[in-house]
């Protein structure tokens, strides 16, 4: 085992200030229990000290299943405070997906609370440390990380790690179907927090109703970190249940709600005898997928609020937003956020295009990640020669400067706000002995925005059924990535270059 590095703990300045000045203010409410900022800071320092006791040093990777909980908040902060790199994981990833992330990131400490089912009892946390032979060994287990760390001396606070140091590895897939870890630095976090604070007018009086997963940028950084940075209160829910959310919007009088379009659609379609008063809410924000203008208008009509749509990417942080004050245009992702520059260019020449013409959106900002973990080639490909991040999204700017997304250059399906990379699903389908070829694509879906569908060419003998293939996918892929419907074909339609014409498959569905 490696010896513990005794370098003093570090604290990111952008969050530490709030924790010391707002000690008595409630920072988090979960399962009706309130936690003050002072208690959260002490807990995070204790968890950081506990990480240190395992020999974890600054720069080491810690993976954690980010269930909605105080524990996950403490993991996030404890890791930031001790300069380690957190790999936030979906507790519903399959064993195959999880082991890929653990290996790719070279994780040393794994806080495992997997649940491969959407419901059902969940086991305790398992604390797994990678040993010299590369295998993980269980070091402890228990219901709460805070309780497990209770005997560790809290780590001593110390001025923060450098802005260029990696704080998070957030995995996104790619065209090859192999997920890559976006290296999000301490500086990226601080820039994003400051930019959104200014743009959305966060204050310490805000109360955020939080129903998003904590393992993606939206729930962890836009929502949770935004609230912590402001010294505001987060009311965290174990998941998104539209009726529960609507009841709490009325009862708990939050000032802010953030969601993906599927959540807004489900709120709009709730049955209810009378319309609740939501006057105390100052802002509803939507992101992670396009908000259909119908949902925008229906929400406005039913609840009297104009949803603010914004645009971001795991690799870029938050990029564009409709204004807090000023016109929020339906179907538009708004204007560049403070500190963000964007260009709309011809994707082949990188030449700027005149307003009104659609081209690839390029991004430059302090919140753009520093590349992909261990993938210099993918990093180089993601940026132009002069350092602009290629978003892979095609956009057009109107005469007022508002941006509209018109298409995607990268192949991706966004379902319920989750990104699915077709190649990753095709790779799994093609592992099935009864499949010779597969093509995966998105089909519009009124609830999820898009749903994952597949077309397969089956082997002549031993032809699988749709159910066989979906079951097969579920063994390797978390459920939102698995096809909802499968078309069986004799041949996949291809163009002269041999590339599958997915547009033609979408029409057949
Ligand atoms: C839902 N599913 C999941 C899942 N949540 N699978 C794995 N992990 C999860 N956390 C599966 C369901 O099991 C189901 O598959 C399928 O998705 C459709 O789900 P549903 O039952 O109709 O919906 P529900 O479970 O209620 O989930 C809907 C939802 C959820 C809107 C609450 O999709 C959600 O939390 N979305 C948020 C995504 C998000 O945070 N994205 C941010 C990415 S960051 P089955 O097989 O069981 O039927 C980013 C950057 C940015 O993009 O700009 O924000």
Describe the structure in your own words.
This protein has 509 residues and is of the alpha/beta class. It has three domains: 10-14 and 35-162, Rossmann fold (3-Layer(aba) Sandwich), CATH 3.40.50.980; 210-408, Rossmann fold; 413-508, 2-Layer Sandwich (GMP Synthetase, Chain A, domain 3), CATH 3.30.300. Helix content is 28%, strand content 28%. The chain has 14 helices and 25 strands. The protein has helices at residues 13-21, 37-53, 70-81, 95-105, 145-148, 186-200, 217-230, 242-251, 261-268, 293-303, 376-382, 422-429, 466-476, 502-508; strands at 26-30, 33-36, 61-65, 85-89, 107-112, 125-130, 136-142, 166-172, 180-185, 207-210, 233-236, 256-259, 283-286, 308-313, 317-321, 335-336, 340-345, 359-365, 389-397, 403-408, 413-415, 418-420, 435-445, 449-458, 485-489. Strands 2-1-11-10-12-13-14-15-16 form a nine-stranded mixed β-sheet, sandwiched between helices. Strands 4-3-5-6-7 form a five-stranded mixed β-sheet, with helices on both faces. Strands 17-18-19-20 form a four-stranded antiparallel β-sheet, with no helix packed on it. Helix 2 (37-53) crosses helix 3. It is globular and about 65 Å long. The protein starts with 12 loop residues before the first helix and ends with a helix. Bound molecules: malonyl-coenzyme A. Malonyl-coenzyme A is lined by residues 90, 92, 118, 212-213, 216-219, 240, 260, 262-263, 287-288, 312-314, 416-419, 478-480, 482.
